[in-house]
Every structure is written in C-alpha cells, then in structure tokens.
Specification:
This protein has about 160 residues and is mostly beta strands. It contains 2 helices and 10 strands, in the order βαββββββββαβ.
Amino acid sequence: MALHRLLVDDFYNDAYKLIAIHCRLPDYRLAYLLNHSLGLNLRRKDDDLDFEYLKSSYSIFEWDNKFQYVTWNLVSNVCKKEEDSLYSSGTLFQKKQKVLKTFNLIPEYKEVDYFIKISNEINNVNERLVLNKLQNIPQIVTSYAVNPLKLKSRDHLIF
C-alpha cells in the first residue's frame, strides 16, 4: 500500500517582499510619511497583532491596492509593556516596582523598529525604487531589504 504524505511547508509559499525600517517616530506618523512619499493609503487596522495570549501586541497598518494586486502592511517590531517586577516575599519593604519589558515581533532583528511587508501577486513592485524613496525621508535613519525565507520567525508575518 502506498504511503502519501502532505508537506505543510509547501502550502505557505506566499510571495512578498520585506523591508526593515529604523525610525524612532510613532507608528501613525511613519504611516503618514509613507503615504505621502510612496503614494500609499495605509490605514490602521482595528485589531493589533496579539501574540502569546496578549503578552505582546503590535500595531499594524494596511492598504490593499486592488488595481495593482498589491497589499502593503506596516507593522511595528517593538512592543514595550510595563509589568510588576518579581520580588522576594521575605524583604523588609513590600513596595512593588514596575519593570519595562521589550518584546519583538521578529526577534532576529531586535534593532529594527518597523517592517513593511509588500505582498504582490504579479511582482510589479520595484523594491529598489521603494528603498530609494524611503532613504529620501529625513526621519528614517535607514531601511533595507530582508530575505523572509531566512527568518526563523517568519510565521509571525502571516496576517
């Protein structure tokens, strides 16, 4: 009897480009600058990306260009949350202290502030042109292309 196997990795073969952005602006301000310089129409989605039972959440902006069959996503890579610190119960002072913890959507790129994900079906987006326009925005420190196939946590980019 023949044995048939189904490889799950073959299903997710989505063609997209990924651009890393180093920028200390708030997400809404960066989305405005991208809309203005790249001619996009990014809008914040109603729900943020939540991981590990609301342990961390990341803002996401999206524009679905139906005329060119391209979906643009701007997603934050950094989530900062204030949590209670752990302390010993046998201490003299029982004051609770807050600790600021930082989580990353893509842990391999901890220094990156935002990612632009460009999902295009017919491969009509010129990545070099997009990078050149991003470099012309003075508030962006740097931007560069990232190969999504080399990411260990590329499953976090499925949305």
